[in-house]
Design brief:
The chain has 43 residues and is an all-alpha fold. It is built from two helices and no strands. The chain starts with a helix and ends with a helix.
């Protein structure tokens, strides 16, 4: 499973020309957005 995930992430990073830092920022913003959606619509 971990090898599969690394392969997919490497493919996405190559396709969109992203660095690991860019991926970290995207994941961070995605987490904030998810938390806001859960807070606003579920809680």
């Amino acid at each position: 499973m971990l090898k599969w995930h690394k392969k997919i992430m490497k493919t996405v990073m190559d396709k969109f020309n992203l660095s690991t830092y860019d991926m970290a920022i995207i994941a961070y913003l995605e987490g904030i957005l998810t938390a806001v959606i859960i807070y606003e619509f579920i809680l």
